[in-house]
Amino acid sequence: AASAVAQLVSDDASSQRLLEQLYDDALQLDAKNAGDASGKVFLCLLLLRDGPMELEGAIFEVWAGGFQVLLSAVGTTMRVNLRDLGVSDDDADYDETRETLIVKGLRLESEESFQADLKGEADTSVDPDVENGNKNRGPPTIKETFQIKPFMRLRAQLGCKGSKAPIALRMRVIEFLKN
């Protein structure tokens, strides 16, 4: 009986240590997330004060539905969904072995559309693409088949949407650069 009680106590102590470790890990993750969010809030405040900025970024992750860009000049990352570039699922293919997105018909957002969205101004023009959830207008900017790969560089415009909560960082791809 004494060994059974000792086993329960030791199990209870190891369970306690495990719970404490899980709690500490959760606190560290919350602190990291709060720091990241705080950085984005201050970046938004800067962009609201000074207006959108142009900067270079590098694609560091690619998946079937889009890619992620590192904007090292401002210390943040942004996700870009293919839908935001006017690419339907039928016009995109992801090559997992080469980590490459092969797309047809990219539509890069216009400066006017980007500025209107930052100001919260709705575009009331009737456009079949808008009705289908695609906010980019007109014919494709890049008509040929295009490959998006990790380490590819691009030029982007970064702005902040909204002057009251909730505010959000917003990025427009201006062009893809040759490596």
What is the end-to-end distance?
72 Å
Regarding quaternary structure, how should these chains be classified?
single chain
Shape: globular
Strand percentage:
25-35%
Order of helices and strands: HEEEEEHHEEE
Helix content: 25-40%
Low-confidence stretches: 126-134
| Total count of helical runs of at least 4 residues | 3
Biggest sheet details: 5 strands, antiparallel
Query: How are strands sequenced across the largest beta sheet?
Result: 3-2-1-7-8
Total strands: 8
Characterise this structure.
The chain is of the alpha+beta class. The protein contains three helices and eight strands. It has helices at residues 2-50, 111-119, 128-131, and strands at residues 53-63, 66-71, 76-81, 92-95, 100-106, 142-148, 153-161, 168-177. Strands 3-2-1-7-8 form a five-stranded antiparallel beta sheet. The chain has a three-stranded antiparallel beta sheet with strand order 4-5-6, with no helix packed on it. A hairpin with a 4-residue loop joins β4 (92-95) and β5 (100-106). The chain is globular and about 65 Å long. The model is unreliable at 126-134 (pLDDT under 50).
